[in-house]
Amino acid sequence: MNAISLKNLFSFEKTPLNLLMAFVTVALVAAFFAGAVIYILHGHHAYNVTRQHPWGLLISMYVFFVVSSTGLCIISSIGHVFGIKEFQQIGKRAIAGAIITISSGFAVIGLEIGHPVTMLIYNVLTPGLTSAIWWMGTLYGLYLTFICLEFFFLAIKENHTLSKIFGICGLLVGLAAHSNLGAVFGFLISRPSANGVFYPVYFILSAMITGCYLIFLMYGFKYKMNFPEKVRVMLVKLSKILGMLLAVLIFFEAWKILTALYGDMPERAATIMHAIKHPNFWFGELTLGMLIPFVVILVSNAQAIKATVYASITGMVGIFFMRYGLVHDTLLYPMTTLKRAEYQLAPSFVDYFPSATEFMIGFGGIGLSLIMYYFADKIFNLDESEHAHH
Amino acid sequence: MARYGMALNYKNCINCRACESACKEENGVLLLPDHYRIWVGVKEAEGEYPNISIASQTYHPSQCQHCENAPCQLVCPTNATHYSPEGMVMVDPTRCILCTYCINACPYDARYVDQRTMTVDKCTFCSDTRLANGETTTACQATCPTKVRVFGDLDDPNSEISQLLAKHEYRQVKEHLGTKPKLFYIL
User: Do A127 and A153 share a domain, yes or no?
Assistant: First the structure.
């Protein structure tokens, strides 16, 4: 831990990039709190969710944050748990990022769940053991505890054995929690486009990709693209891992889509066809999230670290669209199958666009992550200690 | 113990929607968008003028199917959604956390967020408003002018609903999902 004064905490080099980031961070945090006030005053009326589309942007953003957290935890474990030397330097920074992103996720979901206090009580008193949400929530609570302890023994009271033990626990519980989050969608028998084994597996894969993107962004920002040799070597290796993961993801997605379309099964084929025709998928998810980073890595043979940092920005935008699509596409197909009144049209694909308050809270969560990361970077030494790992 | 279900002579339905009104009145369902426990679905006539099949236009009264294997009950993280001793799918407002997972999980669009209790609401077969007072019918059944709905005990072989189901063919909605719905549409 660094000894730091309040003045130090708020002083930073006034470069244009730093000033821009500071402005963006403050604006997003302000948006989050303004959104929270509107929600407290108006409840779910402030959101555009409906009976036919009960989950919206906030659930997407919750998934976005916990995917980021799990991804950072998995990627950090390459060095920290599995002992691969070049990756040991990212341990503390990645675990700090994991704690920060899941905290932002909890802040966002806290404003979506109607009765969060009731949840804390009855999660314990009358647990629904057949519910993927129960397992996901409970395991994520446990995961946060483990990674906090891991960080404590990594950065505050250095103890390599204990940090490794809690690291392994955090990793295993995180994987379980995250695949359960996939199962929240995969278990929906009412939604043929989501139902099945795909999401629990894909969640882990896309988490690892998200973790890689975030490591690139954190290091790109920290070193302002002038990477020391040790960091460069690690990022080249990470880039190769990312390239492989993206190839697997593109392969998985292609087969998921082909399987969904094949045979024109009722509900499933039409839903997926509708989803992939939308720019959110082919431009957001596919081009920004997968193809641009993949092509950069492939063409440069994983050597173009700066370009990969920039591609990680498009990658994270793509990951957002992936999460948004996950929720929206699952709910696209109307459960009301007949029209209900003479003056009503027959049901079609369900429309949804987030309200201003949903945008404020959902994207404001990114501001929470940024400000927590700024403070964590100031307060703790997030780089590898000189005397560690000898 | 009784096991309640409902049979619907849906071909008798004239789409007057008295059942919707009676349900709202009896159970205090708010007059707001998305607030309905039961509804009448309209299947439009098929064909092109002048060859329109009049017989193809039908009305489908619907509501919570009170599934024996209810997806909404399976996914509830706090067991707020539970089975009553009579096999009805009920919601305990004190335990509902309003995660709305059950709304996503229900294949029948039977659930909505009630703005008074701020919990997820659904058809209860009038168990607290009528059955608890000794009535043997639901509000939607009692008000129906063409006797579409027959509510009763599926385990009692002499009940009207059991007799009806023994004598007629019927279909259930989305039964391929394994939900074992307890609404029976008489063919």
Answer: yes
Residue B69 structural domain: 4-186
CATH number reported for the structural domain that contains residue A295 in this entry: 1.20.1630.10
Phi, psi of B114 (to 5 degrees): -85, 125
State yes or no: cis peptide before B50, omega within 30 of 0. yes
CA gap B126, A37 in Å, rounded:
38
- Angstroms from B110 CA to nearest CA on chain A: 9
Could you tell me the residue range of the domain that residue A55 belongs to?
A: 49-334
- C-beta of residue A96 within 8 angstroms of C-beta of residue A376: yes
- The answer to whether A150 and A95 have CB atoms below 8 angstroms apart is yes
Tokens 């054995």 found at: A161
What is the DSSP secondary structure assignment for residue B49, as one 8-state letter?
Answer: T
What's the token pair of residue A70?
């799990």
**Is A165 in the same domain as A265?**
yes
Establish if A144 belongs to a structural domain. yes
Number of neighbours of residue A225 by Cβ within 10 angstroms: 12
Say how many domains are in chain B.
Answer: 1
Tell me phi and psi for residue B87, to 5 degrees. 80, 15
Distance, in Å, from the CA atom of A253 to the CA atom of A202, rounded to the nearest integer, reads 9
A310-339: pLDDT as tens digits:
999 999 999 999 999 999 999 999 998 888
Q: What is the residue whose two structure tokens read 């003479």?
A: A342
By residue count, chain B amounts to 187
Residue ranges of chain B whose pLDDT lies below 50: none
**Same-domain pairing of A120 and A186:** yes
Q: Do B75 and A131 lie within an 8 Å CB cutoff?
A: yes
Distance from CA of A123 to the nearest CA of B (A): 5
ipTM of the complex: 0.91
Residue of B nearest to A341 (CA): B42
> How many beta carbons lie within 10 A of that of residue A110, not counting itself?
15
The whole model's pTM is what?
0.94
Query: How far is the C-alpha of A260 from the C-alpha of A254, rounded, in Å?
Result: 10
Closest approach of chain A CAs to the CA of B158, in angstroms?
34
One DSSP character per residue, A218-247 reads HHHHHHTT---HHHHHHHHHHHHHHHHHHH
Q: ∠A368-A370-A372 over CA atoms, to 5°?
A: 65
Chain A contacts of B105, Cβ < 8 Å?
A: 188-190
- Among B46, B63, B79, most A C-beta atoms within 10 A, so best to mutate, is B79
User: What digits encode the pLDDT tens for the residues A219-262?
Assistant: 999 999 999 999 999 999 999 999 999 999 999 999 999 999 99
